[in-house]
Here is the input.
Amino acid sequence: MLFLLLIQEPAQLSLDLRAPGVAVSPYLYGHMTEEINYSYDGGLYAELIRNRAFLDDRNKPAHWSPVEAGSTVTLERAGMSAARPVALKVTGGTTNDGYWGIPIRPATTYSLSVWAKAETAGPLRASLESVDGKTIFAEAVINGVGADWKNHTVKLKTAKGLKPTKDARFALRSGPGKTFMLSQVSLFPPTYRNRPNGNRPDLMKLLSDMKPKFLRFPGGNYLEGNTPADRFPWKETLGPIETRPGHRGTWGYRSSDGMGLLEFLLWCEETNAKPLLGVYAGYALNGEYTKAGPELEPFVQEALDEIEYIVGGPETKWGARRIADGHPKPFDLEWVEVGNEDGFDKSGSYESRFVQFYDAIKKKYPKMQVISSTGGKDFLGAKFPITQRRPDLWDEHYYTESWDMMGMATKYDTYDRKGPKVFVGEWAAHDTVAPWQAGPNAGPTPNMKCTIADAAFMTGMERNSDIVEMACYAPLLVNVNPGGRQWSLNLIGYDALESFGSPSYYAQTLFAQNLGNRTVELKLSGVPTQRKGTQTLPGIFASATRDTKSGALYLKVVNALPGSQSIDIDLQGANLQPDGTWTYLTGYLKDMNSIAEPLKVAPITRKLTGLGSKFQQRVPGYSVNVFKLQTKR
Here is the structure.
């Protein structure tokens, strides 16, 4: 019997460091956020009480229950203010189940704030306890509850050695037959950098590790609202939380607006990201729009006021308000996006609306970069071209099946360099079923197949960073409980107690952490192909950048093939140091991270030695690889 041994020839990857390359945008990778999947309430925003102002349901006290038999809870239209028109009338005691549980950690101090009054003056007992009430993890007494509305604050401290759990509830008790009223109840664990009204430390750590250069906020559909009345009401999100009415969100639940405009800006500060502000542009998700001209002017002024709050000095109305809110220094706002996905406005009104916003913003802030929301495959050059004013950037959105996303790795190679710069403001690869169709039980984060496609697309953005100035994946955050998610693929997952990054999270973190200031021209040859039906794509994708100051060279290689691949690497015009590092992700296509297995797919780092201007490297099948090399200077 005759056996034939087929030896696969290595692929060839040449990098020409003699060519100048193009400048890499210093803002290439950032974050996009909106209130979806309980991203803020029940997510990044650290508030633990769900329905803290009793406004989530007009007919019943959602997430509040009698503490035991004989206790009662009812809604009363007798709140303490216009922002808090509803109160909870409690006899005996009440419990709150939080966002799929209350996280209990050892040696932890929780800050409780209760707006309350009572028919008969007396104390309330607050506790963190097991869901059956039999185990008390922490408790405190609230004294001085009397006939008038008053805010009472206490601390609840858990003991050392406590086993962490999310199977817990919050309780307030007055005693059998005793009645009291609640207008707002707020409970915070320790927050990131101990900021009042702040964010979850574990999620902020994951976000900060990505080295985001910008944060696009407040969305997304959350910016527009289902109707104009449901748009993000930025002025009502300022000040103490008890003065914020909250509003109806776009994904089936109410927003407390605890994550308000100032909180978004502080989020930027805490992750060293610059703000990218989306302003409401007169179009809502139900198709309602406001005609350009006098009808639109109030919304234009609303946007100018919002910008003034962010960048204005003490001599301005809204700058003075920001200072009064506790932030004297203006924020460094460079970009304003007019609307969100306004290409879906079938009336064709966006161009005239954009012109009105563009002219008003540029008149008051000439250096402000104004972004059009109608870029991308659905809008660019089709129904809604912008011809009267040239946007500083187009916002392009791509939610694409994994195969097509890999095909988009070359999209910007032949892009029109005469048009506006590109902001890829939302993008994600999906596996088979679109994330808005997959249902709440799918996902909740991308698998390795999606990650390979995401990384392949990122190599194309990096190679073309003369035209692609900014990019951010979406959605960013998801509460993994089936009732907590409306979108099946999201970058970071969590429950009340734990959190994890998806394989795509780690791929994007590696790309962002290893980025130079100039591209390096490269050529791939001898690359095996992959096939789907009659279509073929290369099996390997690559990009390279260098830091002209330090001499660092960053090479990214994505292997979309099942088998490991050898690559002959030829660095032309480089005098390479013999040592370097190689970090990679690899796994089966269906592999996902989860609460139970948060690091199933996670970066592995190896040292490289004996390197020269030419060397061979084998990369695993289905892998994302980042090589950090050092050139001699």
Q: What stands out?
A: Confidence is low (pLDDT under 50) at residues 1-7, 378-384. The domain at 64-188 is CATH 2.60.120.260 (Jelly Rolls). Residues 128 and 291 are 52 Å apart (CA to CA). The longest strand covers residues 109-118.
